[in-house]
Amino acid sequence: MPAPDDRNDSEAREDREDGDDRYGATAAALLPLLGGTANLLSVTNCMTRLRVEVRDRSLVRGEALRALPGVLGVVEDAQAYQIVLGPGAVARVAPALERLTAPGVSAEALAERGAELKEERRARNATPFKLFLRRIAHIFVPLIPALIGCGIIAGAAGLLANLHWLPSLVPALTAIASGFMSLIAVFVGYQTAKEFGGTPILGGAVAAVIVHPGVTHVDAFGQKLSPGQGGVLGALAAALLAVYVERACRRLVPEALDVLLTPFLTVLLPGLVTLYGLMFVAGEVSTAIGRWADWLLSHGGAGAGFVLGGLFLPLVMLGLHQALIPIHTTLIAEQGYTVLLPILAMAGAGQVGAALAVYVRLARNLSVRKIIRSALPAGVLGIGEPLIYGVSLPLGRPFVTACVGGAFGGGLVGLAHQLGAKCGATAIGPSGWALFPLLKGNHGPAEAVAVYGAGLLVGYVVGFAATYFFGVSEEVGAEAGGGAAP
């Protein structure tokens, strides 16, 4: 008989192995449905989606892919298949699939992929601005897990401080939560250089100037600088400038001197521009964003919230919602929370209400009801893609009525802001019920929770009512495979 501790360690190890096997099995099941190893060009992931670029789309078995257990939805865009697996699962399936496909990616395939994608993206991307927004999103998406973790820790520290519990632990939690945010400019600089083709560590080195305490001795535009001035916007601009300086150096500097002069000039020149220009300008822009958000909701109130909450689902559908991350991050740095996220999160409430109405109206349609049952828990937690692509968008009108529910929920949160009860989120990433631990307001977390909860309730109710009465017709029910309930 093993000792109890040995048995517990063994059981824990077996649980981890079972989890690894499960995700590995999912990856193995995905591979043939995507056309096999030779058909895969790249495998990446975001918070909820596995993004797979393929060589030949005709080899992809779409229906079988959607029916695979664990797959919450499949989205096909101009560049890739986006397979919705949900948070946690996607972070484990992606590396497992990469391990399975690595042997099949040859140098020739990579070269061919580069040429094909360059021409395909140039032809199919709607505008250069849209492409730029996607690249900005790629910079910030990898930072979201740290933002979530630190935001929850900050919320716990604030709760303990307000309740006067464990006072000796509060400073430690505050330090842990603040560490990442105090250096976020460095991470943004690193990611910016990486995304735009520069040397990541040089982008981080230039952006680090922004948070260095020594900037207080520098005068810019007749004012002393302060550490962190300009925030993520300044870091992004500084690192982007560093990328262009590095490219110029690679072209102009003799090869024998490249290893010395290129890093030297790449850090020095953008660093000086950052200190004597970018930090001040970016600081003014960051302050203006905070003032604009506060003015918009203080004066626009319900109207502004109605528009923002109603338009967010289409942004999610197009994947452009991630382009708002820099604005949210700037508001968190300037004000301690972003007042826009709770309003935008109301779109998910409208989606949940709409899905419930479809579930009730299509009482005889077992396939649709099964999809809703599997996707609804994720929707309640703020992951809207399964409901969007599995239910509301294919049916048509429920997508519109879900937007109506989000608009009314956003309107209520906006009205509360106008009346003096601000509701914000200390981090980005979660929404739905998962956002509750991150809520903060000008009158404390309790009021913020009440405002946000009321907005969710309104979004659920209006989304349900609009969909029940206007979103599902008898014809739609019949076409969906079973008819609507009488």
Spell out the key features of this protein.
20 helices; single chain; Gyrase A, domain 2; 486 residues; two-stranded antiparallel sheet; disordered N terminus; mainly alpha; 3 domains; four-stranded antiparallel β-sheet; disordered C terminus; 69% helix
Describe the structure concisely for a colleague.
With 486 residues, the protein is mostly helical.
Distance between the termini: 62 Å
Molecular shape: globular
**What is the rounded Rg?**
25 Å
Q: SSE order, as H and E?
A: HEEHEEHHHHHHHEEHHHHHHHHHEEHH
What is the count of DSSP helices, taking H or I runs of 4+ residues?
Answer: 20
In the predicted model, the low-confidence regions spanning at least 5 consecutive residues are: 1-7, 9-19, 104-115, 479-486
Strand tally: 8
The chain-level structural class is: mainly alpha
Number of domains: 3
Average pLDDT score: 83
Q: Looking at the chains present, what oligomeric state does this protein adopt?
A: single chain
Strand content: 5-15%
